[in-house]
Amino acid sequence: MSFAPGLIGAVLGAWGLWLSWHGLKSQRTAEVIAEELGHAVVRSEAIQYRQLLGSGYAAPNGRIDLVFSVTATGINGPHPLGTLEGAIECYRSVSPGRVVITGTSASVDSEGNSGDAGTGKTVLALSLMLGLAKQRGAGEPVPVRLTAASWPGSEIRKWISDYLEETYHFSAGDARAVVEADLVLPVIDGLDEMDSSSSPGYESRSASLLRAVERFESGGAHCPVVITCRHSHYEALVNAEAQPQIVANFHIARVDPMRAHSYIAQRVAGTARGRARWQPVLDALEATSRNGSASAASVALTSMLDTPWRLTLATTVFQERTQGGTYLRDPRDLIALAVRGELYAYLLDRYIGAALAAPYNGIDQGVSPTYPSQRARNRVARLNTESTWKQLAILAQYLNGNTHTSLRHRRIVAGRVLSSTDLVLHELWPIFSPRRVRIVDYLLTLLLSFSFLILPSLAALHERGRVGLLSIACVGFLSSLSTLRAWPQPHHFDLSVIFSLVGRRTLFRHLKEAVIIGGAMGTLLWILEDASTGLLAGSSMGVGLAILNAIRDLTMRGELPATDPREIVHGDAVALLGYGVTLGSMLCILAVAGGNSGEFTFVLSFGFLFGLMAGAGRVALRYMAFLFCGRGKLTWRLGRFLDDCYRLGILRIAGNAWQFRHRELQDHLASRPLPAQRP
User: Fold this and answer.
1) Can you state the percent helix, strand and coil of the chain, rounding each to 5?
2) Predicted TM-score (pTM) of this structure
3) Is residue 571 assigned to a domain?
């Protein structure tokens, strides 16, 4: 008599589950997804913008406003000059919203340089991004920053979709929906960093990317895009006829002597002692600002301090103190070094040490927004200059080794093009022999899998039988086969999101689904077993699946900020624990319902092994294998080390990757495995 009601209940439960899933899916429109993406972009990029403006905890607080000129066809009205605050208005006047941001080349300085490195191209791009994201209206695209050197060679839409999945944790369907609706504005940063040559040709990687940009259109109309590139590099691409046909150019001006004078006076010469120390530099800048009255030495110094990056270097290095408060260097030496053509190399040689000395540079009063805890400051204070330099040099050499001009000579490992700028924790394993790292990864996974077999084998064999042990051994072997995937995908499992307002609402919604799932499963087990078994099994499976689905929904929708690259490995490790405990607990309840209360250890082991087999924890294990192969060369706490370097202004963050604060700093470290003697 109970079979018919149970069958009807199961059918109704399945139908209700389908209706619930279909209804939730229909609510995820492209505009809703774009709104979520916009909030995530503002959260993550605002932090990076403030970091770049201040250049990290080691540098004096403050910024230099950027001035740029605009040249383009299709501008509505004259816009000869723009600033950071007015960048949005300049951009909105450009049709169809295709902009290339470059610096302005200067005359050859005392060290033979005439490029526009360090002029603030990324800062201007971030300022534009944040303004557009904050002022975004319905139907307008959300700006998303992409690193040019990490372009895999695909079409722009595919590149954006993959990036949204990897960095902002959107599902594949959501990423495709928002991209196909033309609600993403790609901001491609560092086009010049794709090639090893400063004069790229038509077959270069950067030229290939620009051709992909030219194909990036919708309905026959060009889609908007923003690109940053060094001036000389872009001019070479123009000469090779590889540039997009319709673009506007934002040319960032050099820092003039008076703006450099104002920056130094306000940031490091605000006291009587500071003014006395920096007076020779201030006098040289002031003299150069008066045409015809400057000496050759003053002109040489001014030409070396005409970008925000070099001003940051100079003030950081020459403000370094000992623990007793004594300044290590005299700013008047800047003039002599500039005259001899040695200033830039001198600053780069000492920048790492000066950054590490920040905790006692006299700028650590109060609580720093970059270093919110005293514990973090103390940890940085213990960093060793030589060890830090050596480790950063290893990473810089690896990145520079991935830089090639031609597409045919890209460094590819297991089908993936290696980036020449991005330091992504779980993708650094090719630094050391990729084959050796993968072998160690396989052995670690095999060891972990069979360690789960030890626990159930502690009890008597007859309590579960040879069939049970054989089955769990098979699952363990299958889980080790997951290492055959060359590039494992990270999993996300963060219980903390459940306790947020959005998390509680999401969990409640999935609990309603769980009632349907649990009811259907409980009814079926009621038919097959008995009422008590059906109640326990149905409720446990329903609640367990609700928690899993809620966490997956939250972590795959961009609710987690993409501001800490360490969270990828950490989240993947937690995923193995989370899935193992959740699945194991569900199996434990089923074991109790079946009268096998002594099988807790056995079924918990099954839960963890199924988690491994599903791929959870794969990224964390590959990362551990990489650290094992690099022992003695890189610290075991590599993520924390890179995060400390980021907070000090040595590195910056782009999405889920660290990058060197400046490409010239990366090149300098790559060419010098050992630090120079100080001071």
Assistant:
1) 60, 10, 30
2) 0.81
3) yes
